[in-house]
Amino acid sequence: MGRKTQQNKITSPELLSKINPENRRLLEDFLTYLKSIQRSDATILSYKNDLEIFFTWNLINNGNKVFVKTSKRDIISYQNWLINTNGNSPARVRRLKSTLSSLSNYIENILDDEYEGFRPIIRKVESPINQAVREKTVLTEEQVDSLLAALVADKQYDKACLLALGAYSGRRKKELLRFKVSFFSDDNIIYGSLYKTPEKIKTKGRGMGKFLHAYVLANKFKPYFDFWMNQRKEIGLESEWLFPSREDPSQHMNPDTLNSWAITFSRILGVPFYIHALRHHFTTELSKSGLPDDVIKSLVGWESVQMVSVYKDIDADEEIGKYFDEDGVKPVERAKLSDL
């Protein structure tokens, strides 16, 4: 099965309606502020969900106290409840507390005329040790190839195309769904081997996100693209989107669908699978092929070359082994994109 996250549901319309009116106003004003400084819709929704969890806990366990009167003792109780009752990971607890800190900073800096003397206290409470709670899945080239073969054999061409796009572009889950069919024409191939999207696609980033041209290894991706396009023609599925919604082909697929596909991939492989592992796989395979880190950085769209070392899953011995043999230091040929 794929990786699972503890997401206990404690909020409900009934409980949310009972939240202290002053806290409700703070929440709504804070979200309005975030919109005014152009935070993305996804970011605003995350803040909303996080704060509703706290205010529901505050309603049930803390007397529905006004937020500006929250004490360090209250935060300790909330943190303890998250870890030991609700079963959240340390990383999730840190995220929830970070949202409370953002709200506190908003009150201190923007609402200082209404709440004179308010001082944030969230960060004064030490957070639980951030430790890994999930085993990382490192996909080999053989595993990706075998999974693609299994999907093609079962004529699940949409899934095979999605898997290939992730493995040979390194894009994130939501970004994969923003690709259009028109991106994959011969006119968009550069250097004879690399698709470059004619439009910039939205990627993760501060504010409204970044927009970048995406690159896809054409020779490896094209067979699975053709399988999927031929099947779409057979079933009469028309849409500009490479992965359209079956309910409304004018829209791209919902990201939740890819979560269910990941479960299918996990079952076939026999190891936990998650879409983001393909970003690691892409980076690792490019590095193993001999591409310099600065070229990989440009292909993925990172601002810092240091991100390459975060995403490539190559141990130190394997990395050093590229440059040494029984004769000592050996020359290493730089890879060409046309070889990939």
Give the CATH topology of the largest domain: hpI Integrase, Chain A
CATH architecture of the largest domain: Orthogonal Bundle
Distance between the termini: 31 Å
Q: What profile does the largest beta sheet have? A: 3 strands, antiparallel
CATH secondary-structure class of the largest domain: Mainly Alpha
Q: Order the strands across the largest sheet as they lie in space.
A: 1-2-5
Low-confidence stretches: 1-7
The total strand number stands at: 7
**CATH superfamily label of the largest domain:** Intergrase catalytic core
The fraction of residues assigned to DSSP E strands is 5-15%
Provide mean pLDDT, rounded: 89
**Helical stretch tally:** 14
What's the Cα radius of gyration? 24 Å
Query: What gross morphology would you assign?
Result: globular
The share of residues in helices is 40-55%
What structural category do the secondary elements indicate?
A: mainly alpha
Number of individual domains: 3
- How do the SSEs run, as a string of H and E? HHHHHHHHEEEEEHHHHHHEE
